[in-house]
Amino acid sequence: MRESKYDILFEPVRIGPHIAKNRFYQVPHCNGGGYRDPSAAAAMRGIKSEGGWGVIFTEQTEMHHTSEITPFIELRLWEDKDIPGLRRMSDAMKVHGALAGIQLAYSGINGPNFYTKEVPLAPSALPIRTFTNDPVQARALDRSEIRDLRRWFVNAAKRSKIAGFDLICLYGAHGFGIFQHFLSRATNQRTDEYGGSLENRSRFAREVVADIRDAVGDTTAITMRVSLDETIGELGFSNAEVREFVEMNADLPDLWDLAHGAWEDCSGPSRFKEEGAQELLVKGIRELSSRPVVGVGRFTSPDVMARMIRQGVLDFIGCARPSIADPFLPKKIEEGRIEDIRECIGCNMCVTGDMTMSISRCTQNPTFMEEWRKGWHPERMNEKGVSQTVLVVGAGPAGLEATRALALRGYDVTLAEATTTLGGRVARERLLPGLSAWGRVVDYRQYQISQRTNVETYFDSRLTAEDVLGFGFEHVAIATGSHWRRDGVARQHVVPMPVDETMTVWTPDDVMASKHPDDLSGKTVVVYDDDHYYMGGVMAEVMAKAGAHVVLVTPSAYVSDWTRNTLEQGAIHVRLDDLGVDIRLNRGITAIRAGEVETNCSYTGRRKPVACDAVVMVASRVSEDALYHAVMDRQADWADAGIKSVKLIGDAAAPAPIAWATYAGHRYARELDTADIGDALPFRREITQLEPT
Ligand code: ADP
Ligand code: SF4
Questions:
Q1: Fewer CB under 10 Å: which end of the chain, C or N?
Q2: CA 180 to chain centre
Q3: Which ligand is nearest to the CA of 438?
Q4: Bridge partner list, 170
Q5: Per the confidence metrics, is the pTM higher than 0.70?
């Protein structure tokens, strides 16, 4: 069972009228499903209850129709009709004894109201502040509208109670909630009793808490979520002002929920933020109030968690991403199974489900948001089918996850890997600057596989079709990955671009294999990024650190464009600028010649040469599917070889981020030996019930 040093994490703690059974607190987090996929979102929260969390929250819940953040898909509590969907979620949260919390959001200056077409209301009349610079402004709430808003909060609180929630979180963090808009001088420029002094700027929060306490306070705890620092300098709600605010309103909520800055600051990826990065900002706030305090910091280490409590920094360990990567984190600590924790790698792929309004994925936990859609459990697999043996070729994330999950199902698995290391692309990419935490994708699976007696791993085994047919396995999964193209084919060029043979062109694979000189001082290297995720920016960083003068050329308007979805685009731009990288946006490359590349404007096509000594080509990738096709060509020999099926998975099927590979590996393991569903939809889906016409 658990080590005594972690006992402190399992102490019960009072929050208003309720007692949390332990200190594990799943803070609100989005999932891309929200109101569109209520049962999928509810089942996901239910799994966390089973995993031992003491407190579990919903994502942001739009509490009134006059403030919504379409196109983003969160939850809604606009009328009684919304109650059953939320009730399903609170019921799921409470099955294993967690407290159920709902986060009520009035988005104010952050809600463009594209769906409801209502005029946005905020403390002051300013443009709406969203990721997309929407051409809409908010009107300043007048006094009677503030009274309306207070009533709407009470109505939402009453509905939350009927929907079964034990805790209500008033959202005033990340720039997203109206409490922050009132508290910050940047967004509250009022001259009445709600603006000016901190006392005045806190008035709205005090009034709403008092109103809700009167209405439901006997049964429902009230928490307040604020950012530790707005991170916009003097004008913003600074850490010093946050401390003053807490001191001034010490016993206002039943718990202080301390987030940080904008979402990018609070949920920065591991490339830019360490575990527990907010410790200094949070330290000491607990002493300003008698109420418990929860804080976040991508906590995955039980030792760090226990220290946070022991040293009096926090009362609750707040987790969003660590609870996504491993919903069973508390249970594993409780059962003394620390090495089984599937640690979050801080890649922020989960965030992209929200940013792209699709549904979230997790690189580490392929079952996330598939608990209801596919009936996948993060810790348990379906029963083994009729077959016994499986050969997995390639030990990248797809092959490793397939092996782990197949072994858990009870198959005898043989994993063959061409090189001498496990991990495929992750084994290489974890050595790149800032990406070491990504290695957890390999470490977790390597350990799990090492604990199974039904897995055999062979290194230095680059298999041929002959080998595969000779072994006699019933099923073969081919997860042989991909490699980066040298010819520039990606988005700007769908056929190879002209490349002079005398110019040095490195792909990311070359750079990861250190085929470039260690010292590039005095050399100019053009990094061409037509991939737009992290690799182009990382390559520029590697080249700059090797001393090169780096010119980053990309046809996009942003450096590492797609990383806007992983909340790190701004940080990448700053890092490259700090390294002296010459950033050329909205430019492609038409040709690579001797001693130069010819660039062109993405809009006008106007051309300009850039002299350079070498090019790093970050274009697209080609699947390593030769083995698969060779085995398919020998289909006539399968029966004699005892082969029943051969499947191509992961990057070898179609290159994509690592999360796609772990998903593909997991899916393969789940579906082996299951009935063919033909043309049926491979997941459950919920559609809105039609109203009578
Ligand atoms: P994915 O992301 O789909 O898991 P990776 O590129 O990360 O793909 O991993 C593919 C792995 O497959 C690499 O470790 C590579 O060495 C291995 N591999 C490629 N071809 C063969 C082969 N013919 N036999 C065995 N292993 C192979
Ligand atoms: Fe962590 Fe990445 Fe999973 Fe998000 S997607 S929970 S950041 S491992």
A1: C
A2: 24
A3: 2
A4: 104, 224
A5: yes
The two structure tokens encoding residue 143: 């006094």
pLDDT score for 131: 86
Q: Which ligand sits nearest to residue 568's alpha carbon?
A: 2
Chain-centre distance for alpha carbon 110: 21
Q: How far does residue 462's CA lie from ligand 1's centre (Å)?
A: 9
Query: Ligand 1 mean position to 396 CA, how many Å?
Result: 6
Q: How many residues does the chain have?
A: 693
Q: What is the pLDDT of residues 479-532, one digit of tens each?
A: 999 999 999 999 999 999 999 999 999 999 999 999 999 999 999 999 999 999
Q: Tokens 């109101």 — which residue?
A: 35
Count CB-CB contacts under 10 A for residue 80.
11
The overall longest dimension of the chain from CA atoms, in Å, is 86
Is the shortest distance between the CB of 406 and ligand 2 below 6 Å?
no
Give, for ligand 2, the residue of 329, 349, 663 to mutate: max count of ligand atoms closer than 8 Å to Cβ: 349
352 lines ligand 2 (CB under 6 A): no
What's the rounded mean pLDDT across residues 208-215?
Answer: 98
For 596, phi and psi rounded to 5 degrees? -160, 160
DSSP 228-265: S--SS-TTS--HHHHHHHHHHTTTSSSEEEEE-SBHHH
Q: What whole-number distance in Å separates Cα of residue 525 and Cα of residue 548?
A: 6
**Torsion, Cα of 561, 562, 566, 568 (10° steps):** -10
What tokens does 59 get? 């994502």
Pairing label, strands 621-623, 482-484 = antiparallel
Q: Which of 270, 345, 430 to mutate to test ligand 2, by most ligand atoms within 8 A of the CB atom?
A: 345
Q: Which domains does the chain have, with CATH numbers?
A: 4-355 (3.20.20.70), 389-481+625-671 (3.40.50.720), 486-622 (3.50.50.60)
Q: Which ligand gives the minimal distance to the CA of 270?
A: 2
Rounded-to-integer distance, Cα 502 and Cα 510, Å:
17
Mutate to test the pocket of ligand 1, among 400, 464, 480 (most ligand atoms within 8 A of CB): 480
